[in-house]
Amino acid sequence: MKAKASAKTKMKKFTRKMKKSTTTPRTARSKKKPTSFLSLPREIRQKIFIQSYGRFLFVKPPLFTGSLRETFRTTVNMVNKRMCDHEKQAIEIWVDEMRTVHPIIRDDMDFVCRQIVRRADFGRLMEETQDGQNSIGFCNGD
After folding, report:
1. Dihedral sign, Cα of residue 100, residue 55, residue 50, residue 39
2. DSSP symbols for 71-140
3. How many Cα atoms sit within 13 Å of 124 on the Cβ side?
4. Fewest CB within 10 angstroms: 43, 105, 109, 141, which?
C-alpha cells in the first residue's frame, strides 16, 4: 500500500511540476493593449486615410489649333467644373461619414480633407498647349 501511496505522491509532484512549467507567467505582454487602427500615431492614420481616397478623374483639354480650339476648351472647362463640383461633394460626403466613426478619427479628418482637396489641385488643372499658352480647366477649390 505504501508503494501505491508513494507512486501517487510522485505522480502529484510530477503533475504539479508540469503545470508550473507549461503555464506562462503573467508578464508585461498580457498588460499591453493590442494594436488597433486608433492606437496608431495620428500621422500614420491620416496618411492611410489620404491614400485610401483615390477618386480623381479630370478631363484635360485636347491640343487643337484653329477655331475649334476655343470651342473644345470651353466645353472641357465646363465638364471639368461639373466634375470638380461632383468630386468636392463626394469628398465632403466621405469625410462626413468618416467623422462619425470615432472622435479620434473626427479630429483627423480636417487635415485629411485639406490634403485630399490640395492633392486634387482644384483650380489649377492646367495643360500647356503647343503655342506655349496654358489651357485651364477650372473649378474653385473653396
Report:
1. positive
2. HHHHHHHHHHHHHHHHHHHHHHHHHHHHHTT-HHHHHHHHHHHHHHHHHHTTT-EEEE-TTSPEEEE---
3. 5
4. 43
Cβ proximity of 96 and 89 under 8 Å: no
Look up residue 103 and give its three cell numbers: 472622435
Per-residue pLDDT of 23-64, as tens digits, reads 555 555 567 888 899 999 999 999 998 888 866 544 455 555
Give the position of cell 469628398: 91
Cα gap 82→87, rounded to integer Å = 8
Closest C-alpha to 49, from 3, 91, 4, 7? 91
Total tally of structural domains belonging to the chain: 1
* DSSP assignment letter at 63: -
In terms of pTM, does the model score above 0.85? no
Q: Cell 499591453 identifies what position?
A: 32
Asked whether residue 74 is domain-assigned, the answer is yes
Domain coverage including residue 78: 40-142
